[in-house]
Amino acid sequence: MARSARAAVDDHMVAVNLHDAERLMETLHFPFVQLWPDGQVVFEATSEGAGSQYRGSVLGTEWHHSTVEQATELTKADEAVAFRVEFTRRREDDSVIARYEAVWVTTQRNDVWRIQFRHGPN
Questions:
Q1: In whole angstroms, what is the distance from residue 114 CA to residue 102 CA?
Q2: Which of 41, 75, 76, 115 suits 6 as a labelling partner, its CA being 20 to 30 A distant?
Q3: What φ, ψ does residue 36 adopt, rounded to 5°?
Q4: Which residues of 94-115 are buried (b: 16+ CB within 10 A; e: fewer)?
Protein backbone atom coordinates (compact mmCIF):
# COMPACT_ATOMS: atom_id res chain seq x y z
CA MET A 1 0.00 0.00 0.00
CA ALA A 2 1.39 3.34 -1.06
CA ARG A 3 2.43 5.64 1.75
CA SER A 4 2.96 8.63 -0.55
CA ALA A 5 1.17 10.13 -3.53
CA ARG A 6 4.17 9.50 -5.80
CA ALA A 7 4.48 5.87 -4.67
CA ALA A 8 0.84 5.36 -5.70
CA VAL A 9 1.80 6.21 -9.29
CA ASP A 10 4.57 3.60 -9.29
CA ASP A 11 2.41 0.95 -7.57
CA HIS A 12 -0.28 1.42 -10.19
CA MET A 13 2.14 1.00 -13.09
CA VAL A 14 3.63 -2.13 -11.51
CA ALA A 15 0.13 -3.64 -11.28
CA VAL A 16 -0.61 -2.75 -14.93
CA ASN A 17 2.65 -4.41 -15.99
CA LEU A 18 1.90 -7.56 -14.00
CA HIS A 19 -1.49 -7.97 -15.73
CA ASP A 20 -2.84 -8.58 -12.24
CA ALA A 21 -6.45 -7.35 -12.02
CA GLU A 22 -6.67 -7.90 -8.25
CA ARG A 23 -3.48 -5.99 -7.57
CA LEU A 24 -4.60 -3.29 -9.99
CA MET A 25 -7.82 -2.80 -8.01
CA GLU A 26 -5.70 -2.42 -4.87
CA THR A 27 -4.02 0.62 -6.46
CA LEU A 28 -7.32 2.46 -7.02
CA HIS A 29 -9.67 4.40 -4.77
CA PHE A 30 -13.34 4.13 -5.61
CA PRO A 31 -15.33 5.65 -7.06
CA PHE A 32 -12.73 5.65 -9.84
CA VAL A 33 -12.98 7.74 -13.02
CA GLN A 34 -11.12 7.27 -16.32
CA LEU A 35 -11.52 10.13 -18.80
CA TRP A 36 -10.25 8.95 -22.19
CA PRO A 37 -8.68 11.34 -24.72
CA ASP A 38 -11.80 11.05 -26.94
CA GLY A 39 -13.99 12.34 -24.08
CA GLN A 40 -15.50 9.00 -23.08
CA VAL A 41 -15.81 8.47 -19.36
CA VAL A 42 -15.60 5.22 -17.44
CA PHE A 43 -17.02 5.48 -13.93
CA GLU A 44 -16.49 2.59 -11.54
CA ALA A 45 -18.39 2.99 -8.27
CA THR A 46 -16.73 -0.08 -6.72
CA SER A 47 -13.97 -2.55 -7.55
CA GLU A 48 -16.52 -5.18 -8.59
CA GLY A 49 -16.34 -5.52 -12.36
CA ALA A 50 -13.71 -2.82 -12.67
CA GLY A 51 -10.48 -3.48 -14.50
CA SER A 52 -11.76 -4.67 -17.86
CA GLN A 53 -10.59 -1.36 -19.36
CA TYR A 54 -7.00 -2.38 -18.64
CA ARG A 55 -7.03 -5.68 -20.47
CA GLY A 56 -6.04 -6.67 -23.97
CA SER A 57 -6.72 -4.37 -26.87
CA VAL A 58 -6.39 -1.10 -24.95
CA LEU A 59 -2.63 -1.66 -24.68
CA GLY A 60 -2.13 -3.21 -28.11
CA THR A 61 -0.68 -6.50 -29.26
CA GLU A 62 2.98 -5.42 -29.15
CA TRP A 63 2.78 -4.05 -25.62
CA HIS A 64 4.75 -5.90 -22.97
CA HIS A 65 5.24 -3.28 -20.24
CA SER A 66 5.26 0.44 -19.57
CA THR A 67 7.72 2.65 -17.75
CA VAL A 68 7.00 5.89 -15.90
CA GLU A 69 9.54 8.37 -17.22
CA GLN A 70 8.42 11.27 -15.06
CA ALA A 71 5.60 12.20 -12.70
CA THR A 72 5.39 15.94 -12.19
CA GLU A 73 3.21 17.32 -9.43
CA LEU A 74 0.62 19.71 -10.89
CA THR A 75 -1.33 20.57 -7.77
CA LYS A 76 -1.37 19.38 -4.19
CA ALA A 77 -3.80 19.36 -1.28
CA ASP A 78 -3.61 17.50 2.02
CA GLU A 79 -5.37 14.43 0.67
CA ALA A 80 -5.06 14.74 -3.12
CA VAL A 81 -2.21 15.25 -5.55
CA ALA A 82 -2.51 15.59 -9.33
CA PHE A 83 0.40 14.43 -11.49
CA ARG A 84 1.35 14.87 -15.11
CA VAL A 85 2.59 11.36 -15.83
CA GLU A 86 4.89 10.77 -18.78
CA PHE A 87 5.19 7.09 -19.64
CA THR A 88 6.48 4.85 -22.39
CA ARG A 89 4.88 1.70 -23.74
CA ARG A 90 7.50 -0.91 -24.57
CA ARG A 91 7.88 -4.25 -26.29
CA GLU A 92 9.36 -7.30 -24.57
CA ASP A 93 12.85 -6.37 -25.85
CA ASP A 94 12.37 -2.94 -24.19
CA SER A 95 12.12 -1.12 -27.52
CA VAL A 96 9.73 1.83 -27.56
CA ILE A 97 6.22 1.56 -29.01
CA ALA A 98 5.14 5.09 -28.07
CA ARG A 99 5.37 7.77 -25.41
CA TYR A 100 2.34 9.28 -23.71
CA GLU A 101 1.30 11.94 -21.23
CA ALA A 102 -1.63 11.68 -18.85
CA VAL A 103 -3.02 13.27 -15.71
CA TRP A 104 -3.42 10.98 -12.72
CA VAL A 105 -4.96 12.14 -9.46
CA THR A 106 -4.01 10.33 -6.28
CA THR A 107 -6.05 10.53 -3.10
CA GLN A 108 -5.31 9.54 0.47
CA ARG A 109 -7.66 7.62 2.74
CA ASN A 110 -6.65 6.05 6.04
CA ASP A 111 -2.99 6.90 5.33
CA VAL A 112 -3.08 5.00 2.00
CA TRP A 113 -2.53 6.76 -1.33
CA ARG A 114 -4.15 5.37 -4.49
CA ILE A 115 -5.15 6.54 -7.97
CA GLN A 116 -8.74 7.84 -8.16
CA PHE A 117 -8.84 9.68 -11.48
CA ARG A 118 -6.98 9.28 -14.76
CA HIS A 119 -7.16 11.33 -17.93
CA GLY A 120 -5.33 10.11 -20.98
CA PRO A 121 -4.29 6.77 -22.39
CA ASN A 122 -3.45 3.76 -20.26
A1: 16
A2: 41
A3: -80, 160
A4: eeeeeebebebbbbbeeeebbb
Q: Tell me the Cα Rg of the chain.
A: 14
Amino acid at 30: F
Supply the pTM of this predicted model. 0.89
- The per-residue pLDDT string of the chain (122 residues; one tens digit each, 9 = 90 and over) reads 779 999 999 999 999 999 888 899 999 999 999 999 999 999 999 988 666 555 444 567 899 999 999 999 999 999 999 999 999 999 999 999 999 999 999 999 999 999 999 999 86
- Report all structural domains of the chain as residue ranges with CATH numbers, in order of start: 5-119 (3.10.450.50)
